[in-house]
Amino acid sequence: MGWQEILSSAPRADERNDVEYFEVEARRVLNPARLPWLPFDLTLNPYLQCELGCVYCYAREHAERRTRGAGEGAGPFDRRIYAKTGAPALLREELARLSRLGGLGGKEIALGTATDPYQPYERRARVTRALLEVFATVEDVRLSITTKSDLVLRDLDVLQAIGRRGHVQVNVTITTTDRDLARSLEPRAPTPARRLRAVEGLARAGVPVGIFCMPVLPELTEAPRDLRALVCAAREAGARWFAANVLFLRGDAVRAAFFGWLQGAFPALVPRYRRLYRGPGAPEAVTDRVARVVEALRRQYGLPASVPWPEPRAGPRQLSLFEGAPPEPAPEPPAPGRRVGRALPHAPRGELGAASA
């Protein structure tokens, strides 16, 4: 049974306002990142589609491909959200398979590459938390989490447990400190102030945390004063790194959503953006200009683009505690993101999920 049939027949679990939530049986959870420019080894997404509704989210294209043919059964990208039930048990099984093949071997796992792992429904479903509890039993795991939600603070105890046996880093996506603009761009995401408080809470708890300013929007959020405000706020909140990429529009679904929003919110900018985005990326003159400003701000505020993973701890791995079947490989959406410790300042659209993405 393909994803189209699975999504069309998924039972409804909850409904809030105009958003419906469904639960689907996951077939696998760890997916290898096969494309050479993806800066991590394995990906993990507890949810399909994303309630946050960010107008620039590259995951719209990924969702469009996955649900093509499902018709109305798949539902709008930000109105029908699917939780992968059974994902924690599958993760244990898949880690067991990796253990029998020699363990993780320094592989980096990215949680939240195609949709935010802290969907509002996570408060009830607790799928992400259960996955983190599995990772907390593993020696020397390298786990990065990308989110726009302050709900991550709920799981401080589990994140600290992962940090005691392995390594975890959290990337909080913040595109602007302007509350009104953020609400327009990311209609159901927590406000920038709440996300900065999440950064502060993670930093106080000893969880390595940084900022993803992704995407930077030409003419809207690229001004040096605006980027300075965000870098300064990140530093004050305790962020340890600051990464930024300019808007990247890959695929018809993403372009349609973004230009539809732009026409309603900033119609005077539509001609300018159509000139800039004849292809998926902005011209090199734009990306280079933003990169120079961001690099200067990083130097001024002492924030690198990334930090390296610590060296593996001594001692045996514990993955053999788990048993189960191997994962089935599946490609992830074409979003390059970032390997912690290896910055990609000019990579296409690296917001990594959060719708984020």
Structure description:
This protein has 357 residues and is an alpha/beta fold. Helix content is 35%, strand content 15%. It has one domain (27-44, 85-321): pyruvate-formate lyase- activating enzyme (Alpha-Beta Horseshoe). It is globular and about 55 Å long.
- Give the count of structural domains: 1
The major sheet is characterized as: 7 strands, mixed
CATH class: Alpha Beta
The total count of strands amounts to 11
Q: What name is given to the CATH topology?
A: pyruvate-formate lyase- activating enzyme
- In N-to-C order, the SSE pattern is HEEEEEHEHEHHEHEHHEHEHHH
Low-confidence stretches: 69-74, 315-357
Shape: globular
Which strand order do you get reading across the main beta sheet?
3-4-7-8-9-10-11
Q: What share of the residues lie within helices? A: 25-40%
Please report the distance between the alpha carbons of the first and last residues. 26 Å
The overall pLDDT average reads 84
List the helices and strands and how they pair.
Blueprint: H1 3-8, E1 12-16, E2 19-25, E3 31-32, E4 42-44, E5 47-48, H2 59-67, E6 80-85, H3 87-100, E7 108-111, H4 122-125, H5 127-135, E8 142-147, H6 156-165, E9 167-173, H7 179-185, H8 192-204, E10 209-216, H9 224-237, E11 242-246, H10 252-265, H11 270-276, H12 284-301
Parallel strand pairs: 2-6, 4-7, 7-8, 8-9, 9-10, 10-11
Antiparallel strand pairs: 1-2, 3-4, 5-6
Helix pairs in contact: 3-5, 5-6, 8-9, 9-12
